[in-house]
Amino acid sequence: MTAPSIPYWLYLLECEGGSYYAGIARDVEQRFLLHLFGRGARYTRANPPLRVLAALQYASKGEALQAEYRLKQLPRGHKLAFFSPRG
């Protein structure tokens, strides 16, 4: 019997200046704190995050990465809608 896999989350942050940052993590709260304290992505070191806008859970890292790619292809005005139930 295999152990259940730990899910990954796709998350969307609002950063200073009103920009968005998308990423994946196993623990969104912990990842947000890393971004907040300058230990996350280069983008969030230059544009500090203000809050987590949305998050969606995926069963695997691969699924989360695919969703992140699809999200990043969307225009800014459609990114939040990606997280709605009808996304």
Written account of the structure:
The structure is a single chain. The protein is built from four helices and three strands; from the N terminus they run ββααβαα. It is an alpha+beta fold and about 90 residues long. It has a single domain, classed as GIY-YIG endonuclease (3-Layer(aba) Sandwich), CATH 3.40.1440.10. This is GIY-YIG nuclease family protein. InterPro entries: GIY-YIG_endonuc, GIY-YIG_endonuc_sf, UPF0213_domain. Belongs to the UPF0213 family.
Could you provide a short overview of the structure?
The chain is 36% helix and 28% strand. By secondary structure, the protein is an alpha+beta fold. The chain has a single domain, classed as GIY-YIG endonuclease, CATH 3.40.1440.
Question: What descriptive keywords fit this protein?
Answer:
36% helix; 3-stranded antiparallel sheet; GIY-YIG endonuclease; UPF0213_domain; GIY-YIG_endonuc_sf; 87 residues; 4 helices; globular
The top-level CATH class is Alpha Beta
Which bin fits the share of residues in helices? 25-40%
Query: How many strand segments?
Result: 3
CATH architecture: 3-Layer(aba) Sandwich
What integer value in Å does the Rg equal?
A: 13 Å
Topology, pairings included?
Layout: E1 8-15, E2 20-25, H1 28-36, H2 42-46, E3 49-58, H3 61-73, H4 76-79
Antiparallel strand pairs: 1-2, 1-3
InterPro entries: GIY-YIG_endonuc (IPR000305), GIY-YIG_endonuc_sf (IPR035901), UPF0213_domain (IPR050190)
Family: Belongs to the UPF0213 family.
Domain GIY-YIG: 6-81
